[in-house]
């Protein structure tokens, strides 16, 4: 059963989110501070974290970084900071999505449902995968173990980074637009271009020897991206 951790210190927003999540039939736990959120996350497993950036003790960005040390769980930032630089920072440190405040509650619930649905479907596909491993060059993707190994060392990927890499590897040499990638990985037709671009950048930093001159995830100018490596299933 899906359960999300809601990290928000504003009592009014807490009430609104609580009512909306109950109406959606989504189980949740509330945390009013960053420290409380980290303590709860150590004791319980969640399907998603809905995380405010402006918290009374430690910032949401620091909470995200701490969670990312041990978990690939999807993290969705909520913030009144709406500059592109704020979004890029949030996504660069490991968030899977970024929603501006004030938000439309119906839109927020739709985004949450999409993340939960995509995560369930992806986990089901991993369990049912005929070939549990994908290899290219010196990199091994363990689909069922949700791990990426490079030169015998594990590379840490977030949930969306892992899903994106697995998708690219299943479709080598095929070009995808930013919109197609967003719809496939995030499960929504409305495209957040910046979200895809930042995730591509993060993924390149983790798997490419030279992220500024990538040899795996290539930009096809004016179209989108393609995965250029030859993959082997095992």
UniProtKB/TrEMBL annotation:
Domain OmpR/PhoB-type: 131-229
Keyword field: DNA-binding, Phosphoprotein, Transcription, Transcription regulation, Two-component regulatory system
InterPro entries (UniProt xref): CheY-like_superfamily (IPR011006), OmpR/PhoB-type_DNA-bd (IPR001867), Sig_transdc_resp-reg_receiver (IPR001789), WalR-like (IPR039420), WH-like_DNA-bd_sf (IPR036388)
GO biological process: regulation of DNA-templated transcription
SMART domains, per the entry: REC, Trans_reg_C
Chain positions found as 4-aspartylphosphate: 52
CDD domains reported for this sequence: REC_OmpR, trans_reg_C
Ranges of the DNA-binding region feature: 131-229
GO cellular component, one term: cytosol
A GO molecular-function annotation: transcription cis-regulatory region binding
Positions of the Response regulatory domain: 3-116
Function: May play the central regulatory role in sporulation. It may be an element of the effector pathway responsible for the activation of sporulation genes in response to nutritional stress. Spo0A may act in concert with spo0H (a sigma factor) to control the expression of some genes that are critical to the sporulation process.
Protein's name according to its UniProt entry: Stage 0 sporulation protein A homolog
Organism: Heliomicrobium gestii (Heliobacterium gestii)
């Amino acid at each position: 059963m899906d359960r999300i951790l809601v990290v928000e210190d504003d009592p009014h927003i807490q009430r609104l989110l609580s009512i909306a999540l109950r109406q959606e039939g989504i189980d949740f736990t509330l945390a009013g501070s960053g420290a409380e959120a980290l303590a709860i996350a150590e004791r319980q497993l969640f399907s998603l974290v809905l995380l405010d950036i402006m918290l009374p003790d430690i910032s949401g960005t620091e909470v995200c970084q701490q969670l990312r040390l041990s978990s690939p769980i999807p993290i969705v930032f909520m913030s009144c900071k709406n500059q592109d630089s704020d979004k890029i920072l949030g996504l660069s440190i490991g968030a899977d999505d970024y929603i501006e405040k004030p938000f439309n509650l119906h839109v927020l619930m739709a985004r949450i449902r999409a993340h939960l649905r995509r995560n369930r479907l992806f986990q089901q596909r991993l369990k049912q995968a005929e070939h549990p491993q994908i290899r290219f060059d010196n990199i091994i993707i363990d689909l069922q173990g949700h791990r990426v190994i490079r030169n015998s060392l594990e590379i840490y990927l977030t949930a969306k980074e892992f899903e994106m890499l697995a998708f690219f590897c299943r479709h080598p040499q095929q070009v995808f637009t930013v919109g197609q990638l967003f719809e496939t990985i995030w499960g929504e037709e409305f495209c957040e271009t910046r979200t895809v671009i930042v995730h591509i950048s993060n993924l390149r930093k983790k798997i490419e020897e030279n992220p500024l001159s990538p040899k795996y995830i290539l930009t096809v100018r004016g179209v989108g991206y393609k995965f250029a490596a030859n993959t082997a299933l095992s």
